[in-house]
Amino acid sequence: MMKRESTRADEVRVRSTTMIPFNPIGRIRQDEKPKLFTAFDGVVDKKEHLAVTFGEPSLNEPVLVRLHSECLTGDIFGSFLCDCQAQLHESISTLERLGGVLLYLRQEGRGIGLYNKLEAYALQQNEGLDTFAANQRIGFPQDAREYDVAAGMLKAMGILRILLLSNNPDKAAQLTAHGIDVVQRISTKTHINKFNKKYLFTKYLSGHKLVGLAENT
C-alpha cells in the first residue's frame, strides 16, 4: 500500500485542555456544566484556534462538529450585517443538546482579518458591492479560509468521522481532502433580517445551502 504523504493537518497536536463553565448565549444561569476547551500546537497559521467539547461524544460513532469562523462584529457585538452570531448560538444549543465539538477558528472576515473586513463593509455600503466583490476589490479571494488546520485539530483529538453542522459544502470538501470522513452535512437554519438579506443571497449564489432562503427574499 502506498504511504500517504504527510500534510499540514498531520502536524497539529493537542497543547492543553481545561474545563470552563460558560454562559455563551445570555442565559441567567450558573449551573452550566463546564465544557472542555482544547488548545493546539503545530498550527501552521500560528493562530490560537480552539475546540470546545460538549458532553462526551463517542469516537466510535461520527461526532457532531461545527466549524465556526471568528466574527468579532457578529459573535460579540451582534452585528445584523451577517448571520454569524445566530449561527453560533444555534450551533451551541444543538451541541449542548446532542453533544459534539465546536471548532472556533480565528479566520475573521472569511480569512482576510478584521480591519480588511471593515474596509470591505465600507465598499459594500458606499458602492453597493456584495461581500465577495468587495473582498476582491481590496485584493483578496472571495473566501480566503482554509480548513486543513480544522482537520488537524480533529485528528489531534482522535476524531476522524463527523457529522458536519454547516451550510457550506466547501467545508465538507476541504475536510474530506485532508482525511476527515464527513458522513453527513447538516444544515443550520437560515437567519435572515433586513440588513443581511443581500449578504445571505450572495452566499446562496456561491453554493451555500441556505434552507428556505428563496421564500424569504
Count of helical regions: 8
Order of helices and strands: EEEEHHEHHHHEHEH
Mean pLDDT: 83
Main sheet makeup: 7 strands, mixed
Structural class: alpha/beta
Span between termini: 52 Å
Bin the helical content.
25-40%
Report the portion of residues in β strands. 15-25%
Compute the gyration radius: what is it?
A: 18 Å
| Tertiary shape | globular
* Order of the strands making up the biggest sheet: 1-2-3-5-4-6-7
- Which stretches of 5+ consecutive residues score pLDDT under 50? 1-6, 212-217
Total E-strand runs:
7
Helix and strand topology:
Elements lengths: L12 E8 L14 E7 L8 E5 L8 E7 L2 H5 L7 H15 L1 E6 L2 H4 L2 H14 L3 H7 L10 H9 L4 E5 L3 H9 L3 E6 L10 H9 L12
Parallel strand pairs: 4-5, 4-6, 6-7
Antiparallel strand pairs: 1-2, 2-3, 3-5
Please describe what this structure looks like.
This protein has 217 residues and is α/β, with parallel strands linked by helices. Helices cover 33% and strands 20% of the residues. The chain has helices at 72-76, 84-98, 108-111, 114-127, 131-137, 148-156, 169-177, 197-205, and strands at residues 13-20, 35-41, 50-54, 63-69, 100-105, 161-165, 181-186. A seven-stranded mixed sheet has the order 1-2-3-5-4-6-7, sandwiched between helices. A hairpin with an 8-residue loop joins strand 2 and strand 3 (50-54). Helix 4 packs across helix 5. The longest helix has 15 residues, at 84-98. The N and C termini lie far apart (52 Å). Mean pLDDT is 83; it is low at 1-6 and 212-217.
